[in-house]
Amino acid sequence: MRNSWIILRTFLLAATAGFIFDRIGIFLPWLLGPMVSLLLLRQYTKIEFEWPKVLRQIGLIFLGIQIGSSFTKPSIVLMWSDFPLMVLMTISIVGVALLLSLLFMKMSGETIATSVLGSLPGGLSQMVLLSEEVKTANSTVVTLMQTFRIFVVVTVVPFLTAWIPQGSHINDVSIDELSTFNLVHFVIFAVLGIGFFVGMKKIHFPLPELMAPILSMAIVQFITDHPVVEVPAIVLILSQIFVGAHLGLQLEKVRDKLSFRLFNAIVLTNLALIAFCAGMAYIQTFIHPINTFLDFFISAAPGGIAEMSITALETGADLSTVTSFHLFRIFFILLIAGPVLTYSLKKWLKA
Questions:
Q1: How far apart are CA 160 and CA 112, in angstroms?
Q2: Which one of 13, 232, 325, 336 has the fewest CB atoms closer than 10 angstroms to its CB?
Q3: How far apart are alpha carbons 187 and 191 in whole angstroms?
Q4: How far, rounded to the nearest angstrom, does the alpha carbon of residue 121 sit from its chain's CA centroid?
């Protein structure tokens, strides 16, 4: 009973902060409000908080469904023309992240292994698992670097996008299209989603709660050329609160682990990476004028796919473009860059 009250109190505080952020015109209020408020309250008060993992999972599932609805047949076909840009942007961002890891190493005094694995934008849990395979890597610092990078990106990028003209893409499915709701299509989507989720959990793929509905929605809509389902606005708001509360409480006892020197190194290198991503996005608009600077900037930003997709959703950026770029980067880092760098570090440090 006591835990239920703590969870309810956490939700009420998070929702209130989101409402206040929304009323005063802060960008991404329902994500940033809970995140910032719970982070500050956790650090500077003795209030007890609790946030079940299942609530974050529910939020990610509904966000995944909404993101997946943007993958229509024309948008998936159009993605093939973006493939060379995905490769160029991903390799460029990974390359600059590795260069910035050397700067981070000099500023923080951490080992090369810690700096490299902490700087790669490949996902918190995956980079931490890789760091545990390298003896000279400090898993605690890698965890802190990855977590705080997401915090910096989620804080900075939405405010930057607020100054960029809003996108004109239509991310929502129209009511007329949904009036012909097809139960068979929905059942196929649900079965596929459960199958993807179980498979992803077995291979420890990042964010299966988000990725499974995205992929299953994309497959069903591509084959049938028909929208599956629309997520109500109130559910999207609750989903953002659920994810934002998790992010805010994720930085638990950050003051105990984060020195001033380490803080400066993390913030400076991440701001430099964000600036590089903005430059890359600007160049991409000349190479591929079909998409806007906003599309490419959010696609390049070194944040998590869930957070950047929410940003795309709120700004009117092309959800399918943003999601596909981030998906490609996750696959590239997890399947190629991460294992290769881990193997190289282990061999080099033995020498």
A1: 31
A2: 232
A3: 6
A4: 10
Q: Which residue has the tokens 């999972």?
A: 57
Rounded to whole angstroms, the Cα distance separating 67 from 16 reads: 26
Q: Do residues 34 and 49 lie in contact, with contact meaning Cβ atoms separated by under 8 Å?
A: no
Q: What is the pLDDT along the chain (351 residues), one digit of tens a residue?
A: 668 899 999 999 999 999 999 999 887 889 889 988 998 898 888 889 999 989 999 998 998 898 888 888 887 777 777 888 889 999 999 999 999 999 999 999 888 989 998 898 876 666 776 787 788 888 878 878 887 887 788 888 877 876 776 555 545 444 444 456 788 888 999 999 999 999 988 887 777 888 899 889 989 988 888 888 888 889 999 999 998 898 888 766 566 667 788 889 988 998 999 999 999 999 888 888 777 888 899 999 888 788 888 888 888 888 888 888 888 888 888 778 878 888 888 777 664
Q: Which of 94, 100, 152 is nearest to 328 (CA)?
A: 94
Take residue 215 and report the two structure tokens written for it: 């992929």
Is 297:325 a contact under the CB 8 Å cutoff? no
Phi, psi of 109 (to 5 degrees): 80, 10
Lookup: tokens for 92:
């460029």
**Cα-based distances in Å from 4 to 7, 9, 10:** 5, 9, 10
305 and 326 in contact (C-beta within 8 Å)? yes
CA atoms within 13 A on the CB side of 342: 21
At position 90, the amino acid (one-letter code) is T
- 38 and 186 Cβ atoms separated by less than 8 Å: no
- The pTM of this model reads 0.77
